[in-house]
Amino acid sequence: MQRTVTPPRFDWQEKVESYGMNYHTIDGVVYWDETAYYSFTSAEIDELEVATAELQELCIAAAEHVISNKLYDKMQIPSQAVPLIEQSWEADEPTILGRFDLAYDGHSPPKMLEYNADTPTALLEASVIQWFWLKDRFPDADQFNSIHEKLIEGWKEMKQCLTAPLYFGCVKDAPEDFGNIEYLRDTAIQAGLTTQQLFIEDLGYDSLNSQFVDDNDNVIESLFKLYPWEWLINEFFGRYIEKSPITLIEPAWKMILSNKALLPILWELNPRHRNLLEASFDPQHFRDNFVSKPFLSREGGNITICRSGVTTEYDGSYSGKGVVFQELATLPCFDGNYPVIGSWVICGEPAGIGIREDRTVVTTNSSRFVPHFFQ
Protein backbone atom coordinates (compact mmCIF):
# COMPACT_ATOMS: atom_id res chain seq x y z
CA MET A 1 0.00 0.00 0.00
CA GLN A 2 1.54 3.28 -1.15
CA ARG A 3 0.47 6.87 -1.65
CA THR A 4 1.80 8.70 -4.69
CA VAL A 5 1.50 12.39 -5.52
CA THR A 6 0.47 13.07 -9.12
CA PRO A 7 -0.78 15.98 -11.27
CA PRO A 8 -4.55 16.05 -11.70
CA ARG A 9 -6.17 15.89 -15.13
CA PHE A 10 -6.35 19.43 -16.52
CA ASP A 11 -10.13 19.20 -17.07
CA TRP A 12 -10.96 17.07 -14.03
CA GLN A 13 -13.79 19.33 -12.81
CA GLU A 14 -15.68 19.06 -16.10
CA LYS A 15 -15.11 15.32 -16.24
CA VAL A 16 -16.43 14.51 -12.77
CA GLU A 17 -19.38 16.85 -13.27
CA SER A 18 -20.26 15.02 -16.49
CA TYR A 19 -20.75 11.89 -14.38
CA GLY A 20 -23.02 13.63 -11.88
CA MET A 21 -20.54 14.74 -9.23
CA ASN A 22 -21.34 18.40 -8.65
CA TYR A 23 -19.95 18.38 -5.11
CA HIS A 24 -16.29 17.82 -6.00
CA THR A 25 -15.46 21.05 -4.15
CA ILE A 26 -17.16 21.85 -0.85
CA ASP A 27 -17.01 25.39 0.60
CA GLY A 28 -14.08 26.15 -1.67
CA VAL A 29 -12.08 23.10 -0.57
CA VAL A 30 -11.43 20.18 -2.90
CA TYR A 31 -13.28 17.01 -1.87
CA TRP A 32 -12.54 14.81 -4.90
CA ASP A 33 -8.72 14.89 -4.77
CA GLU A 34 -6.80 13.36 -7.64
CA THR A 35 -3.51 15.07 -6.77
CA ALA A 36 -2.62 11.73 -5.20
CA TYR A 37 -3.59 8.08 -5.46
CA TYR A 38 -3.19 4.91 -3.43
CA SER A 39 -1.77 1.76 -5.02
CA PHE A 40 -2.10 -1.78 -3.70
CA THR A 41 -0.86 -5.23 -4.52
CA SER A 42 -3.37 -7.87 -5.57
CA ALA A 43 -2.66 -9.72 -2.31
CA GLU A 44 -3.61 -6.63 -0.28
CA ILE A 45 -6.86 -6.29 -2.23
CA ASP A 46 -7.61 -9.96 -1.61
CA GLU A 47 -7.06 -9.39 2.11
CA LEU A 48 -9.49 -6.46 2.14
CA GLU A 49 -12.10 -8.47 0.26
CA VAL A 50 -11.84 -11.47 2.58
CA ALA A 51 -12.00 -9.24 5.68
CA THR A 52 -15.08 -7.45 4.37
CA ALA A 53 -16.90 -10.72 3.67
CA GLU A 54 -16.06 -12.06 7.12
CA LEU A 55 -17.11 -8.85 8.88
CA GLN A 56 -20.44 -8.94 7.04
CA GLU A 57 -21.04 -12.46 8.34
CA LEU A 58 -20.11 -11.43 11.88
CA CYS A 59 -22.49 -8.47 11.75
CA ILE A 60 -25.42 -10.53 10.50
CA ALA A 61 -24.80 -13.04 13.30
CA ALA A 62 -24.62 -10.16 15.81
CA ALA A 63 -27.94 -8.77 14.55
CA GLU A 64 -29.55 -12.17 15.06
CA HIS A 65 -28.04 -12.29 18.56
CA VAL A 66 -29.50 -8.87 19.43
CA ILE A 67 -32.95 -9.81 18.13
CA SER A 68 -33.00 -13.27 19.73
CA ASN A 69 -31.92 -11.89 23.10
CA LYS A 70 -33.89 -8.64 22.80
CA LEU A 71 -30.90 -6.43 23.57
CA TYR A 72 -32.66 -3.31 22.33
CA ASP A 73 -32.35 -1.40 25.59
CA LYS A 74 -28.62 -2.08 25.61
CA MET A 75 -28.42 -0.33 22.23
CA GLN A 76 -30.90 2.39 23.26
CA ILE A 77 -33.20 1.42 20.41
CA PRO A 78 -36.64 2.98 21.16
CA SER A 79 -39.56 0.66 21.82
CA GLN A 80 -41.53 1.86 18.79
CA ALA A 81 -38.72 0.64 16.54
CA VAL A 82 -38.64 -2.93 17.90
CA PRO A 83 -41.69 -4.27 16.02
CA LEU A 84 -40.33 -2.77 12.79
CA ILE A 85 -36.95 -4.42 13.32
CA GLU A 86 -38.38 -7.82 14.16
CA GLN A 87 -40.93 -7.79 11.33
CA SER A 88 -38.34 -6.77 8.75
CA TRP A 89 -35.91 -9.42 10.03
CA GLU A 90 -38.50 -12.19 9.95
CA ALA A 91 -39.60 -11.12 6.47
CA ASP A 92 -35.97 -11.07 5.32
CA GLU A 93 -36.52 -7.62 3.85
CA PRO A 94 -33.87 -6.82 1.23
CA THR A 95 -30.73 -4.78 1.69
CA ILE A 96 -28.85 -3.23 -1.21
CA LEU A 97 -25.76 -1.64 0.30
CA GLY A 98 -23.54 -0.81 3.27
CA ARG A 99 -19.98 0.38 3.85
CA PHE A 100 -17.42 -0.75 6.39
CA ASP A 101 -14.83 1.80 7.45
CA LEU A 102 -11.52 0.01 7.90
CA ALA A 103 -8.08 0.87 9.25
CA TYR A 104 -5.45 -0.80 7.06
CA ASP A 105 -1.76 -0.27 6.34
CA GLY A 106 -0.98 -3.20 4.07
CA HIS A 107 0.87 -5.04 6.84
CA SER A 108 -1.51 -5.70 9.76
CA PRO A 109 -4.99 -7.20 9.24
CA PRO A 110 -7.77 -4.71 8.34
CA LYS A 111 -9.60 -3.49 11.43
CA MET A 112 -13.25 -2.48 11.52
CA LEU A 113 -13.78 1.06 12.76
CA GLU A 114 -17.55 1.02 12.21
CA TYR A 115 -20.27 -0.07 9.82
CA ASN A 116 -22.22 2.54 7.84
CA ALA A 117 -25.08 0.13 7.26
CA ASP A 118 -28.07 2.44 6.87
CA THR A 119 -27.19 5.62 4.97
CA PRO A 120 -23.68 5.27 3.52
CA THR A 121 -22.51 7.94 1.09
CA ALA A 122 -19.34 8.43 -1.01
CA LEU A 123 -20.91 5.89 -3.37
CA LEU A 124 -20.82 7.78 -6.67
CA GLU A 125 -17.16 8.65 -6.27
CA ALA A 126 -16.26 5.06 -5.27
CA SER A 127 -18.22 3.42 -8.07
CA VAL A 128 -18.04 5.75 -11.07
CA ILE A 129 -15.74 8.74 -10.58
CA GLN A 130 -12.60 6.86 -9.58
CA TRP A 131 -13.26 4.22 -12.27
CA PHE A 132 -13.17 6.78 -15.08
CA TRP A 133 -10.13 8.40 -13.46
CA LEU A 134 -8.45 4.98 -13.66
CA LYS A 135 -9.34 4.57 -17.35
CA ASP A 136 -7.88 8.01 -18.11
CA ARG A 137 -4.73 7.75 -16.03
CA PHE A 138 -3.83 4.06 -15.65
CA PRO A 139 -5.77 2.08 -18.27
CA ASP A 140 -3.64 -1.03 -17.81
CA ALA A 141 -4.14 -1.17 -14.03
CA ASP A 142 -7.09 -2.63 -12.14
CA GLN A 143 -9.30 -1.39 -9.34
CA PHE A 144 -11.21 -3.13 -6.55
CA ASN A 145 -14.52 -1.90 -7.88
CA SER A 146 -17.46 -3.94 -9.10
CA ILE A 147 -19.93 -1.67 -7.30
CA HIS A 148 -21.81 -0.54 -10.39
CA GLU A 149 -22.33 -4.00 -11.82
CA LYS A 150 -23.36 -5.48 -8.49
CA LEU A 151 -25.86 -2.69 -7.85
CA ILE A 152 -27.56 -3.37 -11.17
CA GLU A 153 -27.66 -7.10 -10.48
CA GLY A 154 -28.93 -6.43 -6.98
CA TRP A 155 -31.81 -4.30 -8.20
CA LYS A 156 -32.70 -6.98 -10.74
CA GLU A 157 -32.93 -9.55 -7.94
CA MET A 158 -35.06 -7.18 -5.83
CA LYS A 159 -37.38 -6.26 -8.66
CA GLN A 160 -39.77 -9.14 -8.00
CA CYS A 161 -40.34 -8.12 -4.37
CA LEU A 162 -40.74 -4.37 -4.95
CA THR A 163 -43.87 -2.58 -6.08
CA ALA A 164 -43.34 -0.07 -8.89
CA PRO A 165 -42.46 2.68 -8.94
CA LEU A 166 -39.51 2.53 -6.57
CA TYR A 167 -39.06 5.97 -5.02
CA PHE A 168 -35.64 7.36 -4.11
CA GLY A 169 -35.63 9.98 -1.37
CA CYS A 170 -33.21 12.31 0.38
CA VAL A 171 -33.44 15.73 2.01
CA LYS A 172 -33.48 18.92 0.00
CA ASP A 173 -30.46 21.21 -0.32
CA ALA A 174 -27.95 18.38 0.20
CA PRO A 175 -25.91 18.13 -3.05
CA GLU A 176 -23.88 15.11 -1.92
CA ASP A 177 -26.95 13.16 -0.83
CA PHE A 178 -28.75 14.07 -4.04
CA GLY A 179 -25.77 13.01 -6.17
CA ASN A 180 -25.63 9.65 -4.41
CA ILE A 181 -29.38 9.07 -4.60
CA GLU A 182 -29.58 9.96 -8.28
CA TYR A 183 -26.72 7.60 -9.04
CA LEU A 184 -28.50 4.80 -7.18
CA ARG A 185 -31.70 5.60 -9.04
CA ASP A 186 -29.82 5.39 -12.33
CA THR A 187 -28.55 1.90 -11.48
CA ALA A 188 -32.11 0.84 -10.67
CA ILE A 189 -33.31 2.20 -14.02
CA GLN A 190 -30.55 0.25 -15.77
CA ALA A 191 -31.85 -2.83 -13.96
CA GLY A 192 -35.28 -2.27 -15.50
CA LEU A 193 -37.08 -0.74 -12.53
CA THR A 194 -39.54 2.13 -12.80
CA THR A 195 -38.45 4.90 -10.44
CA GLN A 196 -39.43 8.27 -9.03
CA GLN A 197 -37.41 10.93 -7.22
CA LEU A 198 -38.70 12.30 -3.92
CA PHE A 199 -37.51 14.68 -1.24
CA ILE A 200 -38.13 13.48 2.31
CA GLU A 201 -39.75 16.81 3.12
CA ASP A 202 -42.45 15.98 0.54
CA LEU A 203 -43.24 12.56 2.00
CA GLY A 204 -46.83 12.50 3.20
CA TYR A 205 -49.15 10.10 5.00
CA ASP A 206 -52.76 9.32 4.12
CA SER A 207 -54.16 8.35 7.53
CA LEU A 208 -57.54 7.35 6.08
CA ASN A 209 -56.01 4.60 3.95
CA SER A 210 -52.85 4.02 6.05
CA GLN A 211 -50.60 4.75 3.09
CA PHE A 212 -47.59 6.94 2.43
CA VAL A 213 -47.95 9.32 -0.50
CA ASP A 214 -45.83 11.72 -2.54
CA ASP A 215 -46.51 15.42 -3.08
CA ASN A 216 -49.06 14.52 -5.79
CA ASP A 217 -50.89 12.10 -3.47
CA ASN A 218 -49.61 9.08 -5.38
CA VAL A 219 -49.23 6.02 -3.14
CA ILE A 220 -45.63 5.10 -2.24
CA GLU A 221 -45.25 1.36 -1.75
CA SER A 222 -41.45 1.09 -2.16
CA LEU A 223 -38.90 3.68 -1.04
CA PHE A 224 -35.14 3.79 -0.88
CA LYS A 225 -34.45 6.45 1.74
CA LEU A 226 -31.12 8.17 2.22
CA TYR A 227 -32.40 9.27 5.59
CA PRO A 228 -31.42 7.62 8.90
CA TRP A 229 -33.86 5.28 10.54
CA GLU A 230 -33.40 6.95 13.92
CA TRP A 231 -34.60 10.21 12.37
CA LEU A 232 -37.40 8.60 10.39
CA ILE A 233 -39.07 6.92 13.35
CA ASN A 234 -39.00 10.20 15.28
CA GLU A 235 -40.84 12.09 12.54
CA PHE A 236 -44.55 12.68 13.08
CA PHE A 237 -45.43 9.98 10.54
CA GLY A 238 -42.86 7.55 11.95
CA ARG A 239 -45.50 6.04 14.23
CA TYR A 240 -47.47 4.92 11.16
CA ILE A 241 -44.74 2.95 9.38
CA GLU A 242 -45.68 -0.29 11.14
CA LYS A 243 -49.28 -0.06 9.89
CA SER A 244 -48.34 0.86 6.34
CA PRO A 245 -47.55 -1.70 3.61
CA ILE A 246 -44.56 0.37 2.49
CA THR A 247 -41.25 -1.41 1.81
CA LEU A 248 -38.28 0.66 2.98
CA ILE A 249 -34.69 0.22 1.88
CA GLU A 250 -32.50 -0.03 3.83
CA PRO A 251 -34.76 -2.25 6.00
CA ALA A 252 -35.51 -1.60 9.67
CA TRP A 253 -33.21 -4.39 10.89
CA LYS A 254 -30.30 -2.27 9.68
CA MET A 255 -30.95 -0.09 12.76
CA ILE A 256 -28.94 -2.69 14.67
CA LEU A 257 -25.95 -2.69 12.33
CA SER A 258 -25.78 1.10 11.97
CA ASN A 259 -25.68 1.57 15.75
CA LYS A 260 -22.15 1.74 17.21
CA ALA A 261 -23.37 -0.23 20.21
CA LEU A 262 -22.84 -3.10 17.79
CA LEU A 263 -19.06 -2.74 18.30
CA PRO A 264 -18.81 -4.09 21.88
CA ILE A 265 -21.41 -6.74 21.08
CA LEU A 266 -19.27 -7.91 18.17
CA TRP A 267 -16.24 -8.04 20.45
CA GLU A 268 -18.13 -9.99 23.12
CA LEU A 269 -19.22 -12.53 20.51
CA ASN A 270 -15.84 -12.69 18.74
CA PRO A 271 -13.10 -11.79 21.24
CA ARG A 272 -9.68 -11.08 19.73
CA HIS A 273 -10.93 -11.50 16.17
CA ARG A 274 -8.21 -10.32 13.81
CA ASN A 275 -10.51 -7.82 12.04
CA LEU A 276 -12.09 -6.31 15.15
CA LEU A 277 -10.91 -3.66 17.59
CA GLU A 278 -11.56 -4.28 21.26
CA ALA A 279 -14.67 -2.41 22.37
CA SER A 280 -16.74 -1.98 25.54
CA PHE A 281 -19.72 -0.20 27.06
CA ASP A 282 -17.69 0.34 30.26
CA PRO A 283 -15.98 3.76 30.47
CA GLN A 284 -13.39 2.23 32.83
CA HIS A 285 -12.49 -0.58 30.45
CA PHE A 286 -9.56 1.26 28.84
CA ARG A 287 -6.95 3.19 30.78
CA ASP A 288 -5.52 4.96 27.72
CA ASN A 289 -5.31 4.84 23.93
CA PHE A 290 -8.99 4.53 23.16
CA VAL A 291 -11.75 6.42 21.39
CA SER A 292 -15.28 7.12 22.59
CA LYS A 293 -18.09 7.25 20.04
CA PRO A 294 -21.80 8.04 20.42
CA PHE A 295 -24.11 5.18 19.51
CA LEU A 296 -25.49 7.25 16.65
CA SER A 297 -23.13 9.71 15.03
CA ARG A 298 -21.71 10.58 11.62
CA GLU A 299 -18.69 12.25 10.06
CA GLY A 300 -16.65 12.16 13.27
CA GLY A 301 -19.21 14.07 15.34
CA ASN A 302 -18.67 14.05 19.13
CA ILE A 303 -15.78 11.59 18.97
CA THR A 304 -13.20 11.81 21.76
CA ILE A 305 -9.69 10.39 21.39
CA CYS A 306 -7.51 9.54 24.38
CA ARG A 307 -3.92 8.94 23.34
CA SER A 308 -0.91 8.79 25.68
CA GLY A 309 -2.77 10.75 28.33
CA VAL A 310 -3.90 13.50 25.92
CA THR A 311 -7.61 13.93 25.17
CA THR A 312 -8.87 15.41 21.89
CA GLU A 313 -12.57 16.12 21.44
CA TYR A 314 -14.39 16.68 18.15
CA ASP A 315 -17.52 18.82 18.03
CA GLY A 316 -20.85 17.55 16.78
CA SER A 317 -24.57 17.34 17.37
CA TYR A 318 -24.71 13.79 18.76
CA SER A 319 -23.93 14.36 22.44
CA GLY A 320 -26.25 13.24 25.24
CA LYS A 321 -26.69 9.74 23.86
CA GLY A 322 -25.12 6.39 24.67
CA VAL A 323 -21.39 6.04 24.14
CA VAL A 324 -19.11 3.10 23.30
CA PHE A 325 -15.40 2.83 23.93
CA GLN A 326 -13.11 1.31 21.33
CA GLU A 327 -9.43 0.51 21.16
CA LEU A 328 -7.61 3.29 19.33
CA ALA A 329 -6.81 2.06 15.84
CA THR A 330 -3.41 2.70 14.31
CA LEU A 331 -3.98 4.44 11.00
CA PRO A 332 -1.14 4.60 8.48
CA CYS A 333 0.27 8.06 7.86
CA PHE A 334 1.49 9.11 4.41
CA ASP A 335 3.14 12.56 4.45
CA GLY A 336 0.71 13.69 7.14
CA ASN A 337 -2.36 12.10 5.53
CA TYR A 338 -4.39 9.45 7.36
CA PRO A 339 -6.48 7.22 5.04
CA VAL A 340 -9.59 5.27 6.02
CA ILE A 341 -10.79 2.60 3.62
CA GLY A 342 -14.50 2.43 2.92
CA SER A 343 -15.21 -1.16 1.87
CA TRP A 344 -18.55 -1.53 0.12
CA VAL A 345 -20.97 -4.39 0.57
CA ILE A 346 -23.61 -4.78 -2.15
CA CYS A 347 -26.40 -7.28 -1.46
CA GLY A 348 -24.24 -8.83 1.24
CA GLU A 349 -21.12 -9.27 -0.92
CA PRO A 350 -17.83 -7.29 -1.01
CA ALA A 351 -17.87 -4.99 -4.05
CA GLY A 352 -15.02 -2.47 -3.88
CA ILE A 353 -13.35 0.27 -1.89
CA GLY A 354 -13.14 4.04 -1.70
CA ILE A 355 -10.53 5.90 0.32
CA ARG A 356 -11.01 9.09 2.28
CA GLU A 357 -8.10 10.83 3.95
CA ASP A 358 -7.54 13.71 6.33
CA ARG A 359 -4.74 15.52 8.09
CA THR A 360 -6.16 14.21 11.37
CA VAL A 361 -6.99 10.65 12.42
CA VAL A 362 -10.74 11.38 12.41
CA THR A 363 -12.63 11.28 9.12
CA THR A 364 -15.01 14.24 8.92
CA ASN A 365 -17.40 15.71 6.37
CA SER A 366 -14.51 17.62 4.78
CA SER A 367 -12.15 14.64 4.43
CA ARG A 368 -10.95 14.17 0.86
CA PHE A 369 -11.75 11.24 -1.43
CA VAL A 370 -8.61 9.88 -3.13
CA PRO A 371 -8.69 7.25 -5.93
CA HIS A 372 -6.86 3.93 -5.95
CA PHE A 373 -5.72 1.07 -8.16
CA PHE A 374 -3.83 -2.18 -7.91
CA GLN A 375 -1.47 -4.05 -10.22
What this model shows, in words?
The protein is an alpha+beta fold and 375 residues long. It folds into 2 domains: 2-259 and 332-374, no CATH class; 278-327, no CATH class. Helices cover 27% and strands 26% of the residues. The protein contains 9 helices and 22 strands. It has helices at 12-18, 42-69, 82-90, 123-137, 147-158, 175-190, 229-232, 254-257, 262-269, and strands spanning 2-5, 25-26, 29-30, 36-40, 97-103, 111-116, 166-170, 195-199, 204-206, 211-213, 219-220, 222-225, 247-249, 279-280, 290-294, 304-307, 310-313, 323-327, 338-346, 349-358, 368-370, 372-374.
Q: Biggest β-sheet, characterized?
A: 5 strands, antiparallel
Shape: globular
Rg for CA atoms: 20 Å
Using DSSP, what is the number of strands?
A: 22
- The end-to-end span amounts to 11 Å
Percent helix, as a range, is 25-40%
Fraction in beta strands = 25-35%
Name some characteristics of this structure.
5-stranded antiparallel β-sheet; 375 residues; globular; alpha+beta
Task: Offer a quick outline of the entry.
The protein is α+β, with helices and mostly antiparallel strands and 375 residues long. It has 9 helices and 22 strands.
Topology:
Elements: E1 2-5, H1 12-18, E2 25-26, E3 29-30, E4 36-40, H2 42-69, H3 82-90, E5 97-103, E6 111-116, H4 123-137, H5 147-158, E7 166-170, H6 175-190, E8 195-199, E9 204-206, E10 211-213, E11 219-220, E12 222-225, H7 229-232, E13 247-249, H8 254-257, H9 262-269, E14 279-280, E15 290-294, E16 304-307, E17 310-313, E18 323-327, E19 338-346, E20 349-358, E21 368-370, E22 372-374
Parallel strand pairs: 4-22, 7-8, 7-12, 12-13
Antiparallel strand pairs: 1-4, 2-3, 5-6, 5-19, 9-10, 10-11, 14-18, 15-16, 15-18, 16-17, 19-20, 20-21
Helix pairs in contact: 2-9, 5-6
